[in-house]
Backbone:
């Protein structure tokens, strides 16, 4: 069952999302050739701590870091470490924040130095898929409308949509009902109601949609090892509009 958020809850999630936005902006500004993924993780941890907030991913199912940092063919859940980012890489930055018991979740994929034009188009298209997803996520619509919006744009641009991982409800916990697929599914298709808060997070691949998990038990990579991009916002379904809580 989906427990809806009231006004006080929404204010709490807004405050969490503001900290998240500052953390993500700070990390993003530090993405240059030569930086290590652990250095990016440390920046996010510092901003979150400065606000008296908590890193929502740290310790979640024993995840060992604040950020997920996923490079090139890594789709999601890359673990920060001593790896150095190089000119021409793309890097997905995903962070979750808990403040006063309220959770927010957001991600973006950014270029490192100068990247290939085709890969730049993958990034732009994935971000546009997120915008379309937000546009489809209106009170009275259904969860599948989000997947249809994402998949139509992604496939018309020649990219594939990752099917094994979904968006999700968020706010009271890191992951709540409902699941929010990016690819149309036959499973539950609930109607979107005012008071729902969702993490919407399309993942697009340059090649095929299949992915696999590396031996570290976390890092999800494309099976064909071609690049992948990921953009995520936490959004609130309101009576008359949808609010992007993690907007820049
Ligand atoms: N944003 C991702 C998600 O919603 C990352 C969380 S996985 C974690 O699933 F284990 F790192 F927390
Ligand atoms: Co998420």
Residues:
């Amino acid at each position: 069952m989906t427990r809806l958020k009231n006004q006080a809850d929404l204010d709490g999630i807004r405050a969490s999302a503001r900290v998240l936005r500052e953390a993500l902006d700070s990390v993003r500004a530090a993405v240059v050739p030569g930086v290590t993924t652990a250095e990016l993780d440390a920046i996010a941890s510092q901003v979150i701590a400065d606000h008296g907030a908590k890193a929502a991913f740290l310790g979640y199912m024993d995840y060992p870091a604040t950020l997920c940092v996923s490079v090139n063919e890594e789709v999601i859940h890359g673990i920060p470490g001593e790896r150095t980012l190089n000119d021409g890489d793309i890097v997905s930055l995903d962070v979750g924040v808990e403040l006063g018991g309220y959770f927010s979740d957001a991600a973006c994929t950014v270029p490192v130095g100068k990247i290939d034009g085709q890969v730049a188009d993958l990034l732009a298209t994935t971000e546009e898929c997120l915008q379309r997803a937000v546009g489809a996520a209106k009170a009275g619509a259904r969860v599948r409308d989000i997947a249809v919006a994402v998949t139509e744009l992604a496939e018309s641009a020649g990219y594939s949509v990752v099917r094994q991982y979904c968006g999700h409800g968020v706010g009271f916990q890191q992951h709540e009902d409902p699941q929010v697929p990016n690819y149309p599914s036959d499973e539950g298709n609930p109607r979107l109601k005012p008071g729902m808060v969702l993490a919407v997070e399309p993942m697009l691949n340059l090649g095929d949609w299949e992915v696999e998990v590396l031996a570290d038990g976390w890092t999800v990579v494309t099976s064909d090892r071609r690049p992948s991009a990921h953009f995520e916002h936490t959004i609130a379904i309101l009576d008359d509009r949808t609010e992007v809580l993690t907007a820049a």
Summary: The first helix runs from residue 7 to 29.
